[in-house]
Amino acid sequence: MSDELWTFERLAPGAKFGPVEVPLNGERVEGWQGVYGPVAGDHAPDGLIVAGMMEAYIRAIQPRPKGNVHAAQKLSFTGQRARLGETVTYTVEVLSKEQKKGRNWIVFAIAASAGGTPLLRGEVTAIWAA
Question: Please, what are the domains in the chain?
Fold first, then answer.
């Protein structure tokens, strides 16, 4: 990992970050249950996979400028489920970037899988601060 700040100029379409691994371990599940209540069965709730997606996005691109704005996200689940105790692997890729009205817009693609099985594909649109 570089100590150089990931600025708009440095981020290029096609740039890949990761993989970032997020274990669905007891500590993570307990934290989830503390907020949302008991998890039924042995599969991770979809929301836990989305929370991992946001964590992976933040961890993958470091250091990042202060003041970025999360402008939008899109999610598409595959219908496959991760089991509690598995590790979910996330990858992040720069899809596109453009300047509009003096602001730096970047769209990132994020994919999640567990044991090689795709779980989620998503996009995060950010207004990049620097």
Answer: 16-128 (3.10.129.10)
Within 8 A by CB and 6+ apart from 40, the residues are: none
pLDDT in tens, 86-103: 999 999 999 999 999 999
pTM attached to this predicted model: 0.93
Q: Angle 64-70-71 (CA atoms, 0-180°, nearest 5)? A: 135
Per-residue pLDDT tens over the stretch 114-129: 999 999 999 999 999 9
Chain centroid, CA 83 distance in Å: 19
- CB of 115 within 8 A of CB of 86? yes
DSSP summary character for residue 129: -
